Amino acid sequence: MHTEFILAAAKNIQQCILANESTLESLDREIGDGDHYINMKRGANTIVELEAELTPLKPDEALNKIGMKLLSTIGGASGPLLASFFMSMAKVLKENGGDSHAKIAAAFSAGVQAIIQRGKANIGEKTMLDVLIPVAQQFEILATQTSDVNLISKSLIRTAEQGMLSTKDLIATKGRAAGLGERAIGHIDPGAKSCQLMIESVCKLVLEK
Amino acid sequence: MHTEFILAAAKNIQQCILANESTLESLDREIGDGDHYINMKRGANTIVELEAELTPLKPDEALNKIGMKLLSTIGGASGPLLASFFMSMAKVLKENGGDSHAKIAAAFSAGVQAIIQRGKANIGEKTMLDVLIPVAQQFEILATQTSDVNLISKSLIRTAEQGMLSTKDLIATKGRAAGLGERAIGHIDPGAKSCQLMIESVCKLVLEK
Amino acid sequence: MKKFINNVDNILVESLSGFAKAHSDLVELHLEPNFLTRANKAQNKVAIISGGGSGHEPLHAGYIGYGMLDAACPGHVFTSPTPDQMLMAAEAVHADKGVLFIVKNYAGDVMNFEMAAEMLPFENATVLTSDDCAVINSTYTTGRRGVAGTVIVEKCVGSLAETGADLKACKALGDKVNKQTASIGVALTSCTVPTAGRPTFDINESELEIGVGIHGEPGRRREAMREADEIVGDCVEAILTDFKIRDIHPTNKHEALLLINGFGATPLMELYLIFNTAAKLFNLQGFEISRSLVGNYTTALDMAGASITLCLLDDEIKQHWDSPVHTAALRWGK
Amino acid sequence: MKKFINNVDNILVESLSGFAKAHSDLVELHLEPNFLTRANKAQNKVAIISGGGSGHEPLHAGYIGYGMLDAACPGHVFTSPTPDQMLMAAEAVHADKGVLFIVKNYAGDVMNFEMAAEMLPFENATVLTSDDCAVINSTYTTGRRGVAGTVIVEKCVGSLAETGADLKACKALGDKVNKQTASIGVALTSCTVPTAGRPTFDINESELEIGVGIHGEPGRRREAMREADEIVGDCVEAILTDFKIRDIHPTNKHEALLLINGFGATPLMELYLIFNTAAKLFNLQGFEISRSLVGNYTTALDMAGASITLCLLDDEIKQHWDSPVHTAALRWGK
Ligand SMILES: Nc1ncnc2c1ncn2[C@@H]1O[C@H](COP(=O)(O)OP(=O)(O)O)[C@@H](O)[C@H]1O
Ligand SMILES: Nc1ncnc2c1ncn2[C@@H]1O[C@H](COP(=O)(O)OP(=O)(O)O)[C@@H](O)[C@H]1O
Ligand SMILES: [Mg+2]
Ligand SMILES: [Mg+2]
Ligand SMILES: [Mg+2]
Ligand SMILES: [Mg+2]
Fold first, then answer.
1. Of A140, B31, D17, D186, which shows the fewest CB atoms inside 10 Å?
2. Contact between chain B and chain D (3 or more Cβ pairs less than 8 Å apart)
3. Chain B residues inside the 8 Å CB shell of C139
């Protein structure tokens, strides 16, 4: 992984978040408090504005800086979770390096583990983890089986999408929607949706190359 | 004038106010504060409920009691004005008696004078006086010229209607609508409308006999 | 109309009962005729009584207590109270130094209080508040309306009365504070009178009403909705023009009290934003905003909107504004 | 959406600036990161810090001052603040007796405060408030939300801290007050988040939402609009049931504080009417409502609606509720 790629991914993510304003906004209005889009937008904009500062950094340093910046920018539930993701991913990359798909997948998994720890949630609770956990698992498996990045990317896009869609039928047991009981059924979790969009953005960037 | 007639008139007025709910309400919403209907309704209901107490009284006593009751029931601008009307009318009736149209007309005029004094307004200021002053004048004139109560009644109904309609093109210089300047033009004054309705009710009662 | 009510005819008494229950240390409620007095009758002072239509809460009952009112007479929603209420209230609270009525300048309030004053068997005087500069006092009006500035008048007069000052002095201070005060209101939505069951006026998403009255009376003009700074700028200008028209010329660095009053449905967040801009603009005009009050103090039921009030201070007014007050809605010192 | 704003991105800073200007005797505003502290730093006491998303004004900045908070960290509208705000606020106000965070139980608030607590270089503890009994604490939830009861926790803990009590004692009192408190809210209209520009939820003229959250989160159920007494009756029952479920059994004649909190667009008149009914119903259930608070204390922007909070009193809580407090939104004694 190169810092250049991280920067390009950040821009893609930003575009994708902006393009999905009404989707993200409605989802959080339906079963949350309506601020998820603006939180994600604030985060994405801040990272893209950081380009000059990030450019000279090593990938792990850049990811750590991104995590720290998100921590003081997003707020809400998604802020500390995404920040934890990037800071933990950075830590593992720093320790093990990121010169293979397997190492990147391991770092990604470490990031997801950090979210699990911080939020004390797991799969099936109608959160972003319903996207992130399956994607992390699939990524680790594929990374040992193939070196075809296109195949990996396409597969992760599908996994993310399935995870996101799976939240629709769930009762929430973590996050703001947990207060809703049965009424949350039928609605996709906003954080799951934004994570799916971010994963898709990054994977598409890989595919475009 | 008999107390029986006063009681019948009160009932007619009550019915007429209730039947004109939306008119009175809209007029006061347009250039006032929207409570004129409910004020008039409260007043009318209270007087009708007073029937048993009023029945044994002499006409002037009944009117005085009605005035006093209205004073503590209606509130707003119309309360003290209508109360003053009835109390002054009662006073003159008591002094001069009410056994001729001329005497009743004089008492009515005294009532209107009391409104003028209390409210410091006069004709042309877009208030109930635009109905009451012409009606009082016409009543006094007709009472000396004819003893045909039907003719008097019909004429007063017309005068009241003209007075009420005349308020439409006026700028208000008294009452709540005085704050509106030009914006009051095009709207009939609610107090003028309710006075016109009351006069019509009473006159129709005379005509029905 | 969606409101927390049982029966539109009982809303006032049920609400007053709740108020009296919640503040039983401060007030006592009397029914038929309706009025509220201090829980403990004050002695040796001019009795200060106010009142008016309901729907402007906390005005006036919320200002009963040490340093402010002795009694308040609530009328029906937006309808002035009747003279019997004032008479009974005066009877209950007067303490041989006379009664001062503080009355907002509306035909109905003026006449009902006037009739009470005429019937009252003891010394009394009346301060008419008329701070609303939306209504320009030209030949064609009965004069300006009393709005949020009334709170400042009640606070200052109440403070002076507490010192044992006589009726004349209390009236004089009230008249002075009223003269030195100007207000203007802006509505974003209409209020809904419970008995009417529908909004008093129609206003759409892109309009605002400048100069609106606290009963939802239409104001100076209907305008296109604009950003807060522009709206506040127009209000500030209206207030300054009003002082000029009335030949009141504040000195440079004149101290002033700035009151941002919410009409009922406007969040505090917006009221403080308005305060921020208004204070800035008045500063630029050479005023020193040394006192402030931000919140819902003279409301119009559920109307969204706010009014801006500027009161020019001098040492006397400042002293009486700062002095202790202990009421349901205004409380400091002591 | 019609609001008094200039630019949705500046609303928070402009409003905070107005707040700080209007209450310069009480608070000091710090920007980037945003937090507010007492104007005069307190010594020899546990520093009490709260915070949360904005839009609930006067919560929390309105409770900074003697007898309550030392600092508040406002997030964006309905978005929890970030750890750097809490760290800087703690740095500014801690006085060597540790820091107590008072945090409403929402995933976002909890995690952001938790990260701040982990990074904080000095002793600290956290009280999580979770008084909202709309969310039944069953296996499928992260727990109840913190709503208007937070004000009672902040008041009592703030009072205790002022006596020089240590961090452990302050946390213990906070936890106790929270445990003895239950709230439930009802919405008649939705709020509108400025950045969203449209109502968070749709609700029609004949519906109400029972158990709504202070961010406009949907509640227990959507119901047909009914008369106030019935709505209040359901709320009172929900609160009593909640105490039972949590195995809290008030004694007969148990003293209690009843808080009727407006969500922002509901007139005081209606809040007092609700108080009247709620007090009556709690009395019938054997409670003695000996303390009360009625007004907009924990709002949800411009939502019409209200919440009912009952806090069971004991001598300790009573003492700390009654003790002097001197903040922008709550002030008595002293
Ligand atoms: N404990 C948790 N673990 C994982 N994800 C969570 C948790 N709590 C909330 N989330 C995620 O955060 C999203 C909401 O983010 P956002 O709207 O930005 O914050 P908030 O809920 O504070 O308004 C939810 O849709 C959910 O995916
Ligand atoms: N000074 C006055 N002299 C005569 N009539 C007046 C005066 N002021 C107001 N009115 C009448 O009172 C009517 C309004 O009555 P109402 O709505 O019951 O009271 P309020 O204006 O106090 O709400 C006006 O339409 C007008 O006809
Ligand atoms: Mg959210
Ligand atoms: Mg009217
Ligand atoms: Mg009226
Ligand atoms: Mg949020």
1. A140
2. no
3. 173
How do C71-77 and C35-38 pair as beta strands?
Answer: antiparallel
Give the largest Cα separation in chain B, rounded: 49
CA–chain centroid gap for D306, Å, is 13
Kindly give the number of the ligand 2 atom that is closest to the alpha carbon of C108: 22
Residue D20 in contact with residue D28, Cβ under 8 Å?
Answer: yes
Q: Which atom of ligand 1 is nearest to the CA of D142?
A: 1
From the candidates A33, A42, A46, which should be mutated to test the interface with D, based on the most D CB atoms within 10 A?
A33
Q: Which residues of C touch D283 (CB under 8 A)?
A: none
The three-state DSSP-derived secondary structure of chain B is CCHHHHHHHHHHHHHHHHHCHHHHHHHHHHHCCCCHHHHHHHHHHHHHHCHHHHCCCCHHHHHHHHHHHHHCCCCCCHHHHHHHHHHHHHHHHHHHCCCCHHHHHHHHHHHHHHHHHHHCCCCCCCCCHHHHHHHHHHHHHHHHHCCCHHHHHHHHHHHHHHHHHHHHHCCCCCCHHHHHHHHHCCCCCHHHHHHHHHHHHHHHHHHHC
By DSSP bridging, strand D287-295 and strand C287-295 are unpaired
Q: What is the ipTM of this complex?
A: 0.95
Based on the fold, state whether residues D64 and D186 are members of the same structural domain: no
CATH number where D63 lies: 3.40.50.10440
Name the closest ligand to CA B79: 2
Instruction: Mark whether D23 and D79 lie in a shared domain.
Output: yes
Q: Which of these three, C157, C179, C201, is where a domain ends?
A: C179
Q: What is the pLDDT of residues B46-58, one digit of tens each?
A: 999 999 999 999 9
D16 and D158 share one domain: yes
Tell me, yes or no, whether D332 lies in a domain. Answer: no
* Cβ–Cβ gap B74/C82 under 8 Å: yes
Q: Which domain holds residue C201?
A: 181-321
Give the pLDDT band of residue B175 (cuts 50, 70, 90). confident
Give me the number of domains chain C comprises.
2
Residue D331 lies in a domain: no
For position B143, which CATH number holds?
Answer: 1.25.40.340
Domain span holding position A70: 3-208
* Chain D contact for A58 (CB, 8 A cutoff): no
Q: A70 to chain D: which residues are within 8 Å by CB?
A: none
Tell me, yes or no, if B180 comes closer than 8 A to chain C by beta carbon: yes
Report, as residue numbers or ranges, the catalytic residues of D. 56, 215
Q: Contact at 8 Å (CB) between C330 and C321?
A: no
Strand C181-187 versus strand C305-312 pairing type: antiparallel
pTM for the model:
0.96
pLDDT value at position D141? 56
Contacts of C320 (CB under 8 A, 6+ apart): C155, C156, C157, C159, C160, C173
* Positions of chain C with pLDDT under 50: none
**Shortest-distance Cα residue to atom 3 of ligand 1:** A119
Which residue owns the Cα nearest ligand 2 atom 13? B191
C294 and C260, same structural domain?
yes
* Six token digits for residue D289: 């409502």
pLDDT at site D231: 98
Q: Looking at CA atoms only, how far is residue C141 from chain D in angstroms?
A: 31
Ion ligand 5 residues within 5 Å by Cβ: B 33, 35, 76; C 78-79
Q: What is the largest CA-CA distance in chain D?
A: 55
- C215 annotated active-site: yes
